[in-house]
Amino acid sequence: MSTSDRSQGRTRGTTPRIADLASTPETPRTPPGRSNSSIYGSPGGFRVEDEYVVLEVGARFVRGGLPGETTPRCTLTFGPDEQRRAADYRQWDPEHHHSRRKRKRDQAWGQDHELYRLDINQVDLGLVEDKFERAMREAFNKYFVLDTKPRRIMLSLPPKLPHALMSTILDVLFGNFQAPSITLLSAPVLATVAAGLRSALVVDIGWAETLITAVCEYREVNEQRTTRATKLLSEHMANILNAALDDEPGAGDPKAEISFEEADEVLTRVGWCKSKPRSNRRTMYFAARTSPILEEFEDAVESPEPTINIPFPKHTPPTELTIPFTSLAKPAESALFAPDMALNEFDDQELPLHHLIYRALLSLPMDVRRLCMSRIIITGGGSQLPGLKTRLLAELEALVSQKGWDPVRNYGSASARHEQLMNQKRENLELRNQEGEDKVSESLDPETPLPPGLQNPEEDFIDAKLSHLALKNVPSASLVGGVIRGVDTLGAWAGASLVAHHRIKGIVEIERERYLQHGLQGATREKEVSVVQQRQSMGPGIGMGRGGGDRASWTLGVWA
Amino acid sequence: MAQPFPYTYYTCDCFDSNNPLASKRGPQPLEEDERDFDPHNPRSNYTLYPLEQLLYCEDCQQIRCPRCVAEETINWYCPSCLFEVPSSVVKSDGNRCTRNCFNCPVCTSPMTTNSLDQHGDGPPYILACPYCKWSTVEIGIEVEKGTGISAQLAKIANGGHPIPSLKERDKERERKKELESRRREKDAMSPTQDSPTTDTERDSTPSHDDLFYNLSSFYKSQIDAQTPSNPFSSAEINFSSPSAYSRIMSMYSSSSRKNKRSKPAPARDAASILEGLSIHDPSNDAQAIERIKREGWSTTLQPSQKLAQPDPTIRFSDELRPLATLLCTKRSKRCRSCRHILSKPENKITSTRYKIKLLALNHIPRISMRALPSQYTQSSSAPSATATPFAYDALKPGIPTHFLLHISNPLFDPIRVTLATPSTTPGKVQSRVTILCPQFEVGANTDVWDDALASSLSPIKHSAQDAGQIEAGKIWDRGRNWTSVVVEVVPGFLDGVPGLASSIGPGAAPPTSTNDGRKRSGTGALRDVGEDDGDLNYDEDVLEIPVFVRLEFEADVNAEERGLGDSRGSKGEREKREEAFWVVVGLGRIVEI
Ligand SMILES: [Zn+2]
Ligand SMILES: [Zn+2]
Ligand SMILES: [Zn+2]
Ligand SMILES: [Zn+2]
């Protein structure tokens, strides 16, 4: 297996494939394999009972609560009603609910519901601070209702959040809320924890982007992004609803232009996604493979066509729209899967979700991939759309059976091991054969080597271990690999709640005094070294242990 | 706009002066007077307060807003039953009433406990909303007792199924695990096809809480297994390699060195629902879709209803739970920079009084604006019997209109006031503003009988004959501790009349204000931004005038600074003081012509 993987690395030079994209510097801020935001515990120290609050910050919400609780105490949003002045009570005015809010000039779709945007050039950081500070004040005063003791903060952040945004958030927490320390944890790692896993492919369908993170042993090893996410989804929903409103008999002259709030509500209430992949030539072409997707490739036609009535009290005149139920699945289709476009028509940052998941998997070393493909966690706001998870997994299954590697089953016996090796040989062959098919990445540097973190060690060691392990008391279910499998997660907040509850220390822990002195600049650059030095005496494997003493230095881990 | 016109908001500029961390993010600090305050900037919403809501730190001699005070909880209570909750209970039982108080999950009204008994006084009981008529009947919940509702509800899931307590959960989990491991042993004896998840667990979809507690117990057992008595004994894994690969190795590697100690079981993933593992089940998706299709819009929940729920990921109305009433707190407030107490309520729950409350309105002059009565502006108008009230919500663009700016002084010393305002209001709708007398004195807030003695500040008599006699540089009127001056305002045109901007002259401010930290680069390239079709944003037709207020006065040296053995602190020692801040006066709404 190791030899095959290495040869795969060498053959890169010939024809670029999707697999090569991830390991090239196309996304400069995501060098795979060097991150270290894992939640390994530190030496089994015995620290005083520290009290925490647990926060999760995203582009459109903050969740906050206390460790060990199953759900956050509050999920705070950043809509226009949250941005009013003191003593502005118009949101409680019944009149207010009958007027449609117009989008501001120069504002992007949904922008006045955002805490921040990732493009730092478009962010008024002072405003981010204002919003976040107000939200945190509400969280502490209305929902946490703690005594006066300052609390440490367990903070879930998206990986690679721009430093300017991070400092803004940390400034508020250290400055206004007097946190003695803040532990940063990356959302995909926490989602993995909250799924009971140590390795996973985390597909976070967020607001402005979908972020796919391969997590291996609590470390991010690969990251892919696409703008196909909730924002685009709600924009497509708005288009469909506007068109339907304009088609209504007696529709007014000015074209319908529903607000973000209306589109978002429709999306989250009755939006859905077809669970079965759309039939297309390519999947049919591979009909010889035994794949479940072939069982049904046409939507069954129901008659009469089911419809849904959606009230639009803010429309002029107020109306109730009757819309075919299938229309409500169209936004997911066009925004997330874009089946009408050929793969090579997409920019790198707008790949359809299933292709991006496939690419993420393909760019992983075979053994990491084997683990990750059976631990696909689909999370984030967009993942709530009913049918979407099933659909993504089915699409992926189809892609794999069409292009890629064979599912590897049956670990745990000598024959299985043999089968695995055979499969991998076969897979490698296929990967090479298939290299001619995709022309997407021709422009990319073919010479870029696999980053060291992803290169194979020489030994055919895992196999031996695996067969050895199977005899021991490890449930085989925890070793499943090689098949496409979705695993549910309770989400990053719940993960952070678990981590804080069990007093697991994070790697990126920032002490107040140091931060106040140096800000983010205080982080040591040699993060890998410093982490190891602190951790060499740690207990094996689990990656978790009870917290240890204070550290002399701290790192920014995955956010460096 | 927030309050009826005309209104006045006061700024607290703590966001760029008191937080040392925040200041580095602000715009280039300018001289206070040079920097115009833009009420249309979204940031202004976070710095403007009605005077009544502001506190004042006498030690720092500064306004204190909710943002620059530190709050400390004095006590906790349920706003519904007014029961005071001890802090230990808050800690153990959380932030909600643990007795009988609930809010409606549909409309948030307080719910009542109703008996379903024919006579109306026996079990079973339900919670019902008197406002929207929602009740726990809709989620299949009745309780046996009319009190202790919270404790009873905690044990009943929707549909009436019991919710196990934490202890019961643990016990049940252990029992099932026992079964599982026995079955595994059997499987090991006669190996069959590997079935990753056991089918028997599939009988019911585990709830969010089920999974959470299962996960929690799984991690606890993993940590316990990994933490031998000597935590430094079993360090085997070399983490110095950044290789992801080595981490996999670690997963399968129980030991890479010879180690005769008992080896802890290798760390691993959760392997079953009992350990918190939940494999994606397509039938959940299918059921949800089918249900939306069948039952439609009304069966789904509004976003705000979901957010208020303990589990905000629910979708359907039969998943709602009544919301135990959030506890309220009484809090004292300290100045964030000097820690002095600024406000402290009385301990008693039912009291709304304060032991200490240092209100800004006792230190900061009250500023207000209103239209100059029409008889003074229209020379020919008949005496005011027929005068209609001024229409603040219909200001006419392009028409010069006179307003009176009124300042009343709460201090016991006379103050010297300097007002400054940009000659055109910032923002898209540019109105011209001229304060006819920007510098004047306001008398001290002396006792009433002193008033009669103070002859120097007698009111100015205005009569209809004065009409048209408004003079620049002169105050309009004054009283014991107040002064009023005339402000001329020419409301701007909503559609931006061409040529208006150029006619304003050199004083015209560029539309982007200097305290707007936003960088606008790149927005032009975005295809999805709102179009600049000339339409106004929400509230952009509101005429708000930023006024920079500077006060100078002499006051007794602060008691504290004077005191404590300072022998030369003679009585009557005076010091010069200065106070400066922005206010925003909302005059009204401009109409189109
Ligand atoms: Zn303030
Ligand atoms: Zn109560
Ligand atoms: Zn109700
Ligand atoms: Zn102070």
TrEMBL record, chain A:
Tell me which Pfam families the record gives. Answer: Actin (PF00022)
Q: InterPro entries of this UniProt entry?
A: Actin (IPR004000), ATPase_NBD (IPR043129)
Can you tell which superkingdom this protein's organism belongs to?
A: Eukaryota
Composition-biased stretches, type Polar residues, lie in 1-14
Ranges for region Disordered:
1-42
Family per similarity comment:
Belongs to the actin family.
Protein's UniProt name: Actin-like ATPase domain-containing protein
Q: Which organism is it from?
A: Periconia digitata
Per the UniProt record, the lineage of the source organism begins with: Eukaryota, Fungi, Dikarya, Ascomycota, Pezizomycotina
Automatic annotation (TrEMBL), chain B:
Pfam families in the cross-refs? Dynactin_p62
Q: Which segments show compositional bias classed as Basic and acidic residues?
A: 166-188, 199-208
On whether Coiled coil is a keyword of this UniProt record, the answer is: yes
Annotated region (Disordered) at 159-208, 503-533
Q: Which GO terms describe its cellular component?
A: dynactin complex; stress fiber
Source domain of life: Eukaryota
Entry's localization field: Cytoplasm, Cytoskeleton, Microtubule organizing center, Centrosome; Cytoplasm, Cytoskeleton, Stress fiber; Cytoplasm, Myofibril
For this protein, the record's InterPro entries field holds: DCTN4 (IPR008603)
Keyword annotations for this protein? Acetylation, Coiled coil, Cytoplasm, Cytoskeleton, Isopeptide bond, Phosphoprotein, Ubl conjugation
Can you tell me which family this protein belongs to?
Belongs to the dynactin subunit 4 family.
Q: How does it assemble?
A: Subunit of dynactin, a multiprotein complex part of a tripartite complex with dynein and a adapter, such as BICDL1, BICD2 or HOOK3. The dynactin complex is built around ACTR1A/ACTB filament and consists of an actin-related filament composed of a shoulder domain, a pointed end and a barbed end. Its length is defined by its flexible shoulder domain. The soulder is composed of 2 DCTN1 subunits, 4 DCTN2 and 2 DCTN3. The 4 DCNT2 (via N-terminus) bind the ACTR1A filament and act as molecular rulers to determine the length. The pointed end is important for binding dynein-dynactin cargo adapters.
Full protein name:
Dynactin subunit 4
**Organism of provenance:** Periconia digitata
Lineage of the organism = Eukaryota, Fungi, Dikarya, Ascomycota, Pezizomycotina
